[in-house]
Design goal:
- By secondary structure, the chain is mainly alpha-helical.
- 42% of the residues lie in helices and 7% in strands.
- It is built from four helices and four strands.
- It has helices spanning 2-22, 37-40, 48-60, 77-83; strands spanning 26-27, 30-31, 87-88, 96-97.
- The strands form two sheets. The chain has a two-stranded antiparallel sheet with strand order 1-4. A two-stranded parallel ribbon has the order 2-3.
- The longest helix is centred in the first third of the chain and has 21 residues, at 2-22.
- The chain is globular.
Length: 107
């Protein structure tokens, strides 16, 4: 029994560390009409192919609202809801990764 519990705790720990390593923390916003592929790839869940699809879409159809992002294959309502706080169609892009490393304090 103890061995099973220990193995379960190890598995949970490994899954937890893997999930946190894959999740990037970002802050700011990204302008869907001007962002580069690299800037779009900072968005959680957006890889190179989706970022390229966003750029290709906007060349023919500039975004009037962030909801239009759902026109991109692979971006459904759940993903759009997750991304909404990072999206704009006007102004500069300010999205950047946030470091998870603790800051050293000078004493």
């Amino acid at each position: 029994m103890k061995k099973t519990v220990l193995m379960a705790l190890v598995a949970i720990s490994l899954i937890s560390s893997f999930a946190s390593a894959k999740t990037k923390e970002v802050e700011g916003i990204v302008n869907l009409n001007t962002a580069s592929v690299q800037e779009l790839m900072l968005l959680p869940g957006i890889g190179k192919s989706k970022a390229e699809a966003i750029v290709a879409y906007r060349q023919a159809h500039p975004f009037k609202s962030s909801e239009e992002l759902s026109e991109i294959k692979g971006i459904g309502p759940k993903m759009l809801q997750k991304l909404e706080k990072y999206l704009t169609v006007t102004g500069p892009s300010t999205l950047h990764e946030v470091s998870n490393k603790p800051q050293k304090t000078l004493q």
